[in-house]
């Protein structure tokens, strides 16, 4: 829905949409590696996409290595309930919740025009936060009972120990959308997961230097981590070969 063109199905997207991630990565691997003779595949997801990518890695387990060599998640809401609560209160509610709903409601109404009766229009228009929006739109359209069910089953945090491909999980501890208390600790992830939780950075910000500064540090570090693990994977494959 973010490309400017609606899909043709009675659904949209959601934070735990690992089935779509699986389809994308399998297609990329088939076209780039198998048919095109290309090199390895690295995947990075930002914010909502980061959680969906990690959910895919959790579900895929050992088979993830058949599609990617390493993954990285940047500022993802790993605990959707904690993130939803943070966005729904105080300054976030006054500014960001209104901004999100101002873009999400028209997309939902366009989907309703495609499929009349898909959901309750009046309930959608009455939604004043993401919890209400997800309860009338996101959850039922994607097979969840309600918002609580969606946020619980869509969160990657409880399943991070199942990841079997190198994964970098980046979260700033001052992210206004993601409470630091909700971030996973080393004991909550498996050996394949690297946590990077700097004190500052906000939500996909990570500014460096004096004003006006720059935002190159985070992508450089994430890219460097991915490149390092790619080199390690190649070395292991060469040794085993």
Describe this structure in words.
The chain has 241 residues and is of the alpha/beta class. Helix content is 47%, strand content 7%. It is built from eight helices and four strands, in the order H-E-H-E-H-H-H-H-H-E-E-H. The chain has helices at residues 18-35, 48-60, 80-87, 90-114, 121-126, 130-141, 147-154, 217-240, and strands spanning 42-46, 70-74, 167-170, 193-196. It has a four-stranded parallel sheet with strand order 1-2-3-4, sandwiched between helices. Helix 6 packs across helix 7 (147-154). The longest helix has 25 residues, at 90-114. The protein is globular. The N and C termini lie far apart (44 Å). 32% of the residues are buried. The model has no long low-confidence stretch (mean pLDDT 93).
Brief description of this entry?
The chain is α/β, with parallel strands linked by helices. It is built from eight helices and four strands. Strands 1-2-3-4 form a four-stranded parallel β-sheet, with helices on both faces.
| Total DSSP helices | 8
Q: Main sheet?
A: 4 strands, parallel
Instruction: Choose one word for the global shape.
Output: globular
Distance between the termini: 44 Å
Q: What is the residue-averaged pLDDT?
A: 93
Q: Give the radius of gyration.
A: 19 Å
Structural class: alpha/beta
- Element-level helix/strand string: HEHEHHHHHEEH
Number of strands: 4
Helix content: 40-55%
């Amino acid at each position: 829905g973010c490309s400017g063109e609606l899909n043709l199905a009675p659904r949209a997207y959601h934070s735990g949409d690992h089935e779509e991630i699986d389809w994308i990565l399998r297609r990329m691997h088939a076209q780039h590696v198998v048919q095109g003779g290309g090199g390895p595949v690295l995947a990075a997801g930002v914010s909502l996409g980061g959680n969906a990518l990690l959910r895919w890695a959790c579900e895929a387990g050992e088979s993830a290595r058949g599609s990617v060599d390493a993954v990285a998640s940047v500022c993802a809401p790993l605990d959707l309930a904690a993130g939803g609560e943070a966005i729904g209160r105080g300054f976030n509610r006054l500014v960001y919740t209104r901004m999100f709903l101002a873009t999400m409601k028209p997309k939902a109404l366009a989907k309703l025009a495609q499929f009349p009766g898909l959901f309750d229009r009046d309930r959608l228009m009455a939604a004043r936060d993401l919890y209400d929006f997800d309860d009338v739109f996101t959850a039922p359209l994607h097979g969840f009972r309600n918002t609580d069910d969606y946020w619980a089953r869509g969160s990657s945090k409880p399943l991070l120990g199942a990841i079997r491909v190198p994964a970098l999980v980046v979260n700033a501890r001052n992210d206004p959308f993601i409470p630091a208390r909700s971030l996973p600790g080393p004991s909550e992830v498996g050996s394949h997961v690297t946590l990077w939780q700097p004190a500052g950075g906000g939500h996909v910000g990570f500014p460096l230097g004096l004003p006006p500064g720059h935002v190159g540090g985070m992508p450089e570090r994430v890219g460097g981590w991915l490149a390092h693990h790619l080199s390690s994977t190649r070395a292991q494959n060469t040794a085993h070969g």
